[in-house]
Specification:
Number of helices: 28
Mean pLDDT: 83
Strand order of the largest sheet: 2-1-6-14-15
CATH class of one domain: Alpha Beta
Shape: elongated
Low-confidence stretches: 33-37, 57-73, 923-1010
Radius of gyration: 49 Å
Distance between the termini: 104 Å
Length: about 1000
């Protein structure tokens, strides 16, 4: 017989004995028989009640057991492994870090949670939780029958006092395995699973899991939180192991009504005093239970109850997404991309399969987005916090941004057009050349107003920053040019596409490639790009290596691509990475922002590995860098940058302006880093002086980052010149080896070339010749043109002129414009000043003090003027020189000279100084004349190219010539030195044309003609 049955038998026997004793007492007292019978009836009735109660209980128990069995009959019996997976499969927020493990914060999530081990939790908190949620936790086997019956009775009777009947184990099952559905079916399953969990797991394991999954309301940033560590940090700013007794009691009371007891609103603001009271009262209740259970003393209880806990609530804090929105969202976006491939590979898919299948890509992107919010990854980035903060501060304080623009957008709710004010935006990227690490970036002006990351997600026209990448470096790589090779900057029309320089009417003629790049001329770049395409090259093949997402392959064949003509465009990150490749001697490293990702157990599931590929050869990269060094010189479009920098390093840079000045860029690279910046509006709009402002902010950001990291921003070393780069002399205007004509014309230059392409071949494009100047233009001289009116030069052969204008053709006379002093002695065959067949028209002379002046000849073929004193030529003036000469006393006449060498009739005679006194009559015979008198000179006949006789000399003419001292043609007046004149120099009051380009480089002409 069991103990329980024995116990029941003994209890019944004792009850029967009590009844018999009572009956005997009644008999002894002589009680009436009727009363004695009543006791007998009562006893029998009692026995019947007991019997029926036992039978009813047995029946009820059987029915209850049967009902319970029916509720759980379909429930799968979970193994230990299944239960372990489910119990510990709670979501944990992923953490993000700046470079060097500097903590940034948590990624966005619906529920923040940080896992903690039981040993790291204050005993005060564990005691408070057990006393409040499950006082029999250390004793029961997963359920407490008495508590369950009490809860059922309260539910059936709809009692106002609902004490609950779930143990910590049951609550863990409800949170981690089952749903929150309120039903007897779920409750039955909960009981069954709780019993099974208690069988497999230790109490400490169950308690630890509960402490990590319990809902805790909100933290001081307004985020939903779970787990005691997250609550301790988010409410009191301490770790769970450092909680005080009042703090521990407050947290232990939260799970009953997390959002009712939490001290913070959904905006992270502290609730009102009245709204805080429920949580404070709950704390007191927890303390009372701890006192009842003996966890704390009365003194501890009273002190904790009276403690003003509100002073411990931390002030509102900003989440990572609030403090660093651009960084947080960018890291999340990149981490999802990495996890997508990781999860797909875990499932057996290759990276290529993911890329080739939209279905697989979408599936694992969704899985990655969920995974990153639930599995507590640690994401370590490359962003240097100090540099990022510094650049943000410079951006926020920059006073050079243009004003807001009003644009029309569609209201998504109403569908109506509304006017919206948008700011000028900025994007920048600072990248390490040797690795591709993104050290810092600028995502935009104001994240709340515009969430687009303008450094990594905004696709814009590159403007002229495309020229080194798609034009000059490819041409060097193909062996078509060196740094000094001449390019034709002459207008053309290609199937309706008519690009222009920044100054629309300006043509620079033949200019060195390095000048064309530094000054960012459009016509020369467009011609060179077209030349490569016509010769069967694909200049875009190098840019394809960086895989720009916004550029389609067919765009490279369009001629306007050379000037930044793009359908979608390129991001700042992509553009900077391409320049970083040039700065890294042609080796391209994929840009990256995430160094590594660890799972919640500390396993590294991803770590970036640099895999450089050659974009350009080292020699091509160096020659391109050397050309870009000139951008910051006086001839370059970035010449304002050096004066704004507070340090000096080996910069190679390029500016860029897109069509209509919708975009402005400036990118600079040195041996360590590359930094690029972009200005523009999200709705394209013309910028005001955008290039200057972009350069200014670029310089300010570099100055500040240099103050923080001079080792990085201002390296002591310069770009090293690799093997395969040579200095070679060449004919400046052809780029080939110089011949005698080139040397005599003074057109030999020296510049950098790759050893694969050096100047060679015979120079046959130049012919030594003479030229004359008229109205600022140069014309081929005739054989009969007097030497004093011509200059030595070189004539470009028609065939070579055609070659230089390939493939678009053009006006060969524009190859050597007068304002291009670099080729001042060159001209083309078509430039000839035709002889009109007549003598030039005469001029009129006048005198003022010691200066003789004359009017210009009306003939179109005049090339200069001669001044005579008698028969002696005393001064020469080329056509483009001044129409005057300062001479000593005497009489003078002026003639015009045409291109054929013919002279006009003499001008009127003018005198400088007083007339000579008359001579006394000579008394000597003619035979006795003074032999010391000057011999009479015969002046040239008017209009006769021989220069002799014709106008009948007289004595007066002879005397005047003697007085003027003009008898010796080789000895002109002291203040007039024809042999020393420099007729090519302009008058003092005339400024020669500047070779400097405009401050801004040229935007590309519209068109995608290819």
């Amino acid at each position: 017989m069991t103990d329980r049955k024995l116990y029941m038998k003994e209890r019944l026997a004792s009850i029967k004995a009590a009844f018999i004793k009572a009956k005997t007492a009644l008999i002894k007292r002589g009680a009436p028989k009727k009363l004695r019978l009543s006791y007998h009836v009562v006893w029998n009735i009692f026995l019947l009640v007991v019997i029926f109660a036992v039978i009813g209980a047995a029946f009820a128990g059987g029915v209850g057991a049967g009902y319970f069995a029916s509720l759980v009959k379909d429930e799968e019996v979970l193994s230990y492994e299944d239960l372990e997976t489910n119990i510990y499969d709670y979501t944990e927020t992923s953490d993000i870090y700046f470079a060097n493990d500097v903590y940034l914060g948590k990624l966005r999530t619906d529920l923040e949670r940080e896992e903690i081990a039981l040993k790291d939790v204050s005993p005060l908190l564990t005691d408070a939780v057990i006393a409040t949620e499950d006082e029999y936790f250390m004793e029961h086997d997963g359920v407490v029958p008495k508590a369950i019956m009490r809860a059922v009775f309260q539910e059936v009777t709809n009692s106002a006092n609902q004490t609950g009947g779930s143990t910590l184990t049951q609550q863990l099952i409800k949170n981690q395995v089952l749903t929150n559905e309120v039903s007897f079916d779920r409750k039955a399953k909960e009981i069954l699973l709780a019993l099974r969990v208690e069988r497999f797991f230790e109490k400490e394991q169950i308690l630890e899991a509960y402490l990590n999954v319990a809902d805790m309301g909100r933290n001081s940033s307004g985020s939903n939180i779970a787990g005691v560590q997250t609550a301790a940090q988010g409410i009191f700013g301490v770790d769970a192991k450092d909680l005080s007794l009042p703090q521990a009691a407050f947290i232990a009371g939260l799970p009953q009504a997390p959002f009712g007891y939490t001290p913070f609103t959904n905006k992270g603001e502290l609730k009102s005093e009245e709204a805080l009271q429920p949580g404070i009262e709950r704390k007191k209740e927890v303390l009372s239970r701890m006192l009842r259970d003996g966890s704390i003393t009365r003194e501890q209880h009273d002190e904790a109850v009276s403690y003003d806990l509100t002073q411990d609530f931390i002030e509102r804090s900003s989440s990572a997404a609030e403090q660093y929105p651009y960084v947080t969202y960018e890291l999340e976006r990149r981490a999802v991309e990495i996890l997508k491939y990781y999860l797909a590979e875990q499932a057996g898919y290759s990276r290529q399969q993911v890329d080739d299948s939209q279905t697989i890509d979408k599936e694992y992107t969704l899985l990655a987005e969920r995974d990153i919010r639930q599995n507590g990854y640690e994401i370590h980035s490359t962003i240097d916090k100090e540099l990022y903060d510094a650049m943000e501060k410079v951006k926020n304080n920059f006073a050079g941004f243009d004003g807001n623009r009003t644009v029309e957008r569609t209201n998504l709710e109403t569908g109506e057009a509304v006017n919206v004010s948008i700011p000028e935006q900025v994007g920048s990227v600072l990248m390490e050349n040797s690795t591709g690490r993104i050290l810092s970036f600028t995502g935009g002006r104001d994240f709340e107003q515009e969430q687009l990351n303008h450094a990594t997600q905004s696709y814009r026209s590159s403007g002229s920053t495309i020229k080194p990448l798609a034009v000059y470096a490819p041409a060097i790589e193909y062996g078509l040019i060196g740094a000094g090779s001449p390019l034709a900057d002459v207008k053309f029309n290609y199937n309706g596409w008519q690009p222009a320089n920044f100054v629309v009417g300006r043509e620079y003629g033949l200019i060195p490639a390095r000048t064309a790049l530094a000054a960012s001329h459009n016509l020369s770049a467009a011609r060179l790009y077209g030349r490569m395409i016509e010769q069967g090259h694909n200049p875009g093949e190098f840019l394809e290596k960086i895989d720009p997402k916004g550029i389609k392959d067919e765009e490279y064949s369009r001629r306007a691509f050379s000037l930044g003509g793009m359908d979608k465009g390129i991001t700042v990150e992509e553009n900077v990475s391409a320049y970083a490749a040039i700065g890294n001697m042609g080796q391209y490293n994929e840009p990256y922002m995430i160094e590594k990702i660890e799972d919640r157990d500390g396993n590294v599931i991803f770590e970036h590995k640099a895999e450089p590929i050659e974009m350009f050869s080292p020699s091509t990269a160096y020659v391109t860098l050397d050309m870009m060094r000139d951008t910051m010189t006086p001839i370059g479009s970035g010449r304002t940058a050096p004066s704004q920098l507070n340090f000096s390093t080996d910069w190679a840079s390029k500016s860029g302006t897109s069509q209509f000045e919708h975009d402005n860029w400036f990118i600079g690279t040195n041996p360590n880093i590359t930094f690029g910046i972009w200005f523009g509006y999200d709705e394209p709009s013309s910028l005001n002086d955008g290039s200057r402002r972009a350069i200014s902010l670029w310089a300010q950001m570099m100055n500040r980052t240099n103050e923080l990291r001079p080792d990085l921003i201002d390296p002591s070393n310069a770009f090293p010149q690799p093997e395969g780069v040579v200095n070679r002399s060449f004919c400046t205007f052809t780029g080939q080896a110089a011949n005698d004509a080139c040397s005599k014309a003074g057109l030999v230059s020296t510049d950098l070339f790759t050893s694969a392409y050096t100047p060679s071949g015979s120079e046959n494009g130049l012919i030594v010749t003479k030229y004359v100047s008229k109205d600022g233009k140069r014309f081929v001289a005739m054989d009969s043109t007097p030497d004093e009116f011509s200059s030595n030069g070189a004539l470009l052969s028609p065939d070579y002129a055609k070659q230089m204008l390939y493939p678009y053709g053009g006006d060969s006379s524009k190859l050597f414009p007068e304002d291009n002093s670099f080729f001042s002695n060159l001209l083309v065959a078509e430039n000839r000043l035709e002889d009109d067949g007549s003598n030039p028209g005469s001029v009129t002379a006048s005198v003022s003090d010691s200066k003789i002046s004359w009017t210009p000849s009306g003939s179109s073929d005049v090339v200069g003027y001669r001044v005579y004193s008698g028969g002696n030529k005393v001064a020469v003036r080329k056509l483009d020189e001044s129409l005057s000469a300062s001479l000593s006393a005497g009489t003078y006449q002026v003639v015009a000279v045409d291109v054929a060498g013919k002279e006009s009739a003499r001008s009127n005679e003018v005198r400088i100084g007083a007339a000579p006194k008359p001579k006394k009559e000579n008394t000597q015979n003619e035979d006795n004349s003074d032999s010391s008198s000057p011999a009479a000179a015969t002046p040239p006949a008017s209009g006769n190219n021989s220069g002799n006789g014709g106008n009948g000399n007289n004595e007066e003419d002879e005397e005047e010539e003697v007085e003027s001292g003009g008898s010796d043609e080789s000895s002109p007046p002291a203040d007039e030195e024809p042999g020393e004149e420099t007729p090519d120099d302009p008058p003092e009051d005339e400024t020669p044309p500047s070779d400097d380009p405009p401050e801004d480089e040229e935007p590309p002409a519209d068109g995608d003609n290819g």
